[in-house]
Amino acid sequence: MDIYDYQKLLKRVQEDERLKRLEDTERFTIPKVDVIYEGRTTILRNFEKILSTLNRDADHLLKFFLRELGTAGEKDGSRAIFQGRIPAHQIQNKLEEYVETFVLCQECGRPDTQLIKKDRLLLLRCDACGAVRSVTTRKKKVLARVGEESLEEGKVYEVTITDIGRKGDGIARYGKYTIYVPNTVKGAKVKVKIEKISGNLAFARCVEQ
Ligand SMILES: [Zn+2]
């Protein structure tokens, strides 16, 4: 390889790297909640930061949190304060639900969206691709309640493995959830402990019978 080719190659690699970095920084990740406890209150320290990442106003997210967490609370400077000691993962789950419902474009998956009211409908308009969808929170909640089969992190459930995923993990269905359970076989009835829930996905491990 002569020097010219080498430099061309180097340039291409650098270009690739640059694009990859650009992609990485553009990929949206849901902020992690930063929670501390003071007495009998829960403090979400990065409330303001979450708001600016999501580009939503404080009232909207705060009302959502209070309703979904079933508590009282208020904005306090750049933080939010909730009554009671609320587990951080519960707040994180609700934040993820909020982002899915009120922030992410379903067409392109980007968070550059705006909530707009039209007549009595709440719409989500995407600045990136122009897609518009209606925000349907009530419907989702009713559906979830009908099944009455909600999962909670840390709890144990008995499930039947009905499928094996591509990576070899067992898959069970529970209400609206798809649960991934490593080290199981198809057809097995197992007791599993839920480790993590993300939207309709849950990750669990078998517990000793
Ligand atoms: Zn979009």
Key terms:
alpha+beta, Alpha-Beta Plaits, OB fold (Dihydrolipoamide Acetyltransferase, E2P), 3 domains, 6-stranded mixed β-sheet, 4-stranded antiparallel β-sheet, 5 helices, 13 strands, 33% helix
| Neighbour order of strands in the largest sheet | 8-12-13-11-10-9
- Report the oligomer: single chain
The number of E-state strands comes to 13
Question: How do the helices and strands follow one another from N- to C-terminus?
Answer: HEEHHEEHEEEHEEEEEE
Question: What is the count of distinct domains?
Answer: 3
Named CATH architecture of the largest domain = 2-Layer Sandwich
Q: Which ions and ligands are bound to the chains?
A: zinc ion
Describe this protein's structure.
This protein has 209 residues and is α+β, with helices and mostly antiparallel strands. It contains five helices and 13 strands. The chain has a six-stranded mixed β-sheet with strand order 8-12-13-11-10-9, with no helix packed on it. A four-stranded antiparallel β-sheet has the order 1-2-4-3, covered by helices on one side. A three-stranded antiparallel β-sheet has the order 5-6-7, with no helix packed on it. The longest helix has 24 residues. The radius of gyration is 22 Å and the shape is globular. Bound molecules: zinc ion.
